[in-house]
Predict the 3D structure of the following.
Amino acid sequence: MTTRREFLKISAAVGGGLAVGFEFSEAGAAQAAELTPWVVVRPDDTVIIRYARAEMGQGSMTSTAQLVAEELECDWSRVKVEYADTNDQVRRKRPWGDMAAVGSRTIRNSQEYLRQAGATAREMLVAAAAQQWKASPGDCRAERGVVHGPGGKKLSYGKLADAAAKMQAPKDVKLKDAKDWKIAGKPIKRVDIPATVMGRQFYGIDAQLPGMVYAAIAQCPVFGGKVKSVDESKIKGRRGIIKVVQMDDYVAVVADNWWRAKEALKALPIEWDGGKNGEVSSESIRQFLKAGLDAQQDVVTARSDGNVEQGLSGAAKVVEAEYFTPYLAHSTLEPMGCTALIKDGKVEIWTSTQNAEASHATAAAVAGVPLENVRTHRTQLGGGFGRRGGSQDFVRQGVAIAKQLPDGTPVKLLWTREEDTQHDFYRPVSLIRMKAGLDASGMPVAWYSRVSAPSIIATLLKLPLKEGVDPQAVAAYADQPYEIPNVRIEYAQRNPHVPVGFWRTVGHSQNPFMRESFVDELAHAAGKDPLEYRRAMLKEASKERAILEATVKAAGWGTALPAGVHRGVAVTEGYGSYTAAVAELSVNDKNVVTIHRLVLGIDPGYAVNPDNIEAQMQGSAVFMLTAMFWGEITLKDGRVQQSNFNDYRMMRLREMPKVEVVLAPTGGFWGGIGEPGQASIAPSICNAIFAATGKRVRSLPLKNEGFELA
Amino acid sequence: MIKLTVNGKPRQLDVEPEMPLLWALRDVLDVKGVKFGCGIAQCGACTVHVDGEPVRSCSFPVSAAAGKKIVTIEGLARNGKPHPVQQAWIDNQVPQCGYCQGGQILAAVALLRKKPNPTDQDIDEAMTNICRCGTYARIRKAIHAAAKSSKAKA
Amino acid sequence: MERRRFLEAAGGALAASLAPRPLLAQAPPAFAQSADSQALVKRATRGKEARVGKVKLDLPLLADNGNSVPMKVAVESPMTAADHVKTIRLLSERNPEWEMAAFHLGPYSGRAEITSRVRLAGSQRVVALAEMSDGSYWMGTADVTVTLSACVDGTG
């Protein structure tokens, strides 16, 4: 078996190489002392901080290390970050806990044990110094990688590491108050960026092994369909072709070069059996969801306060609307793929994954080997956005194809962009009915929403739903913050054959659009300013109110705008953070929308790396604007109609509006960063479009409503 | 046998003339900084310089590169020091996932060669590569910064 | 093997067993000592004490999905008429049916060992509870991480 070290040597030699800022665990490990699973100190004072989850551009590799380093009191310039090894994870019974970077929860779910790890290692270093000096640990203190003792004695962490590793880990450590932070809370430069810009970053697609072969794949274009027949004779004699692998629902061509495999696959006649699903279209799905809105059966209640019927019947005015959001693809720029090597009952995989443990367990299951015989090599991800976490289809395929090849043959599976677009686990389609009753003053006394949509948790993860409710499907409704006495939220779970999955911001990528647009409709029906209307429904002391106020203040809500320029506002909570958005835009007589300014506010509780938070908010703007102007996956004959960036459009540089970020952390809690930023954007834009044109957008994408982005 | 120069080194390879330069570089010559994103010249992750011009190598036959000088993201640095554009990318913390950034940087270098002091409109027109993470604001900032730093040196 | 369903009894346990709890919130290496699993054991023994030991439960540390997870339970017992294992029960913190399975044994079983597959609704601590012929209870536990369900633990 190619060892990891050999592999690394190989890849370094060919220029695939490793990142400058971080490294894999074997290099130099011999002389390093592990103080906790998270902290390793080398004699030369290098401090290695391990990172367990994934880095896909969200920056957590750096911000988690900042939290460890803060408590460790080390010298940040001597810090290197390396990935925790999945094989060690299994053998050592999960010392690193959850390895998944999903749900914007890397910081909020691991901050406590990471800070404790830093503090624990620091105490061990101090104790080792005190022992050496025969001093009391209370008379010693750690600062920037050095322990200082009585009489001006000092020893660097590198000199103390060996002794410290033998010290008993303290049971209770005191963590710093955020106001005393020196490394955390600062806009520290990301550790992975130098390698990226120098072309040395290592992604899953970059694995290169001696004797490696390449696989291109064609999956049944109709979800759930099967391979009927393959005519291998048509590609016989083509250069470099090694094998045609026929599986239940896909065909792979293996060749000595990926391009040759892909070209041969194009020429390979494959007959598919799509079955009943071959009749499904976007129209039939829409009808299916529509029936869910009216159904009496198979509907559950996700929230019920007061009595909605009474509230509505006693209302001075009732407002009703239906909202729609489409399926969306993730379109990570690096397509799905997995390199797998099976040899002597052991399995190694190289893949861009948001959940290395899931990849590891999947590889073990498919290969039929114990977890201890697997290693999932950690790499940077060329985008994740939820595609590479909850579904490990690419690993399943990569290992299954490797199983079809002679033992010891490494194979790199790579999808085309077309496969990637047409075989995603899509952001669910959703149709929602809203109804609200307003009292004589125009304020809502009753709010009713019914969500007719697929369930990711029931269909992808196949987990039981508590009382039949998928919390993501009713997100932002069931937990809406407005003070309304009578509320009922219903969920009609309707699952078409299209696979659904976690798409950045998940339920909050669509429901806030509908909720906050509808709140605007109510404000309009009441003849009130949309900001004042929200203020009246939000408790003064609420976090929602605070971020709304900070954002509208920065945006200058209420100040005069140039002729033709209009504002829209929205506020949403999600992933433990609170966000608000104010859009300023104009719409010309051809319905071309010019966004002059987008002000995005976020309160994540604690801001571990402010510059990274700004970057995530900027990125969220591009991601959401792309989706809301152009994004839709449609179906015909059971198949996805879009295929590549020519028909599934991405925003480009010239289209990105000016984005201003209002970072307003109020402390006392830990919120997410990667996803919440998207939530308030769509409604703020659509509310501004209404202000500009009088047209209420109730369905996305905007291109289908006649609007274009300038 | 097709002969070309990659990052200053003469290379030769025996492949089909129609094989895209991208795959010749990645799978045959093991130059991994150039990335595959779409295969139809839409995204620009595969951007390389061919005799100084930015080219989308996924749709550029390797035979058309014969005898030419290819520069990939790995070949921009001089004496181990980042190119001024790379430095500007670090200073402005441009990348997120980073997958498109080699192509973005090569597109920016080509732009700055033609227009050492580009306007926002010049940047809009030249920078058509897709970044799914949405780093566009920082790309713009970094290009302006690189233009300034180059001027300061000149 | 007999798979008993305690649907009605599960009604009460349902809310508790499915209530989200902050898995791994503080100590990543292991599941925090769970009040849930202790309560389950109490329920199964009708309040009698169950001692830790004699029962060895093997489950994989990681499962790629929870639909069919291999498991093995072995109980130290001579399996004689005088001293044997009467039942082995598998208790789940998070499944809708808190008692996943019950296996009835006797001296005729020869060995107190069971190999089977179980369905797990997410990452959790599983308890194997053995009732001995003398009426005493012994237990062993195992923590399983269902890796794909990691996406929905907490707030998703």
About this structure: DSSP finds 18 helices and 28 strands in chain A.
